[in-house]
Amino acid sequence: MKLLIAVSLMSGLLGMVPGHLPKNGDRMCVYQVISQGDASFCTGNLNVIYPEIGDIGCMYVPDCNNFRQKMGSWGKPAIKYSQAHENKKYVLMMVDPDAPSRYHPKNRYWRHWLITDISGAGLKTGKISGHELTAYRPPSPPPQTGFHRYQFILFEQPEKGKPITLTANENAKRGSWAMNDFIKHFHLGHPVAATQFLTQN
Question: Residue 50: helix, strand or coil by DSSP?
């Protein structure tokens, strides 16, 4: 029995890893890595950096220092992709595939942010600018809907082709966005990088 308890405790500790310490130096604030299944979404070393927390890619938002509540009032995060080509442009999407909940995602995908014409030079430094088709909306999972995934997907923007836009219907609402149809319509291909974090109300 003692061995079983020891193994269980060790398993729990292995699932917890320290991230960037908060600015107040609270060493009790520990970052937890998301499950292996969810972590498989994270590719290409895309960094999503919020105030106080730091890079939250492939993590749960820590349940300390009111971070999960604060995130709803913070502005857009810094996005950094060190492998970006300076002479290329990129498209970034932030979506919630779990609207209104992971077990009943009838409003998938909920579009939180959509930017085109991002310069590679800006991505390399984490100071992005471009044409914002959908203004940033912070994570806001409804109460009692469990954890939501907030996904950031980066594409290399085609050099030629039709201008990337949203239709009037797409502009009218953020929810139930046909993201995959959008990707296909504008020939964005496969993402060059992607990451996600999980949080709940």
Answer: strand
* Cα–Cα dist 86/104, whole Å: 41
90, 156 in Cβ contact below 8 A? yes
- Whether pTM > 0.70 for this model: the answer is yes
DSSP string, 117-129: EEEHHHHHHT---
CA distances from 89 to 35, 157, 188 (A): 32, 5, 12
The label of the residue with tokens 């139930």 reads 176
Residue carrying the six token digits 């430094």? 125
What is the rounded distance in angstroms from the CA atom of residue 24 to the CA atom of residue 6? Answer: 32
Q: What angle do CA 184, 132, 79 make, to 5 degrees?
A: 90
Classify residue 64 by its DSSP letter: S
Angle at 182 between CA 151 and CA 81, to 5 degrees: 40
Q: pLDDT (tens digit, 9 = 90+) per residue, 151-180? A: 999 999 999 888 999 999 999 999 999 999
Within 10 Å of residue 127's Cβ, how many Cβ atoms?
A: 12
- Of 174, 162, 186, nearest to 91 (Cα)? 186
The amino acid present at 185, given as its one-letter code, is: H
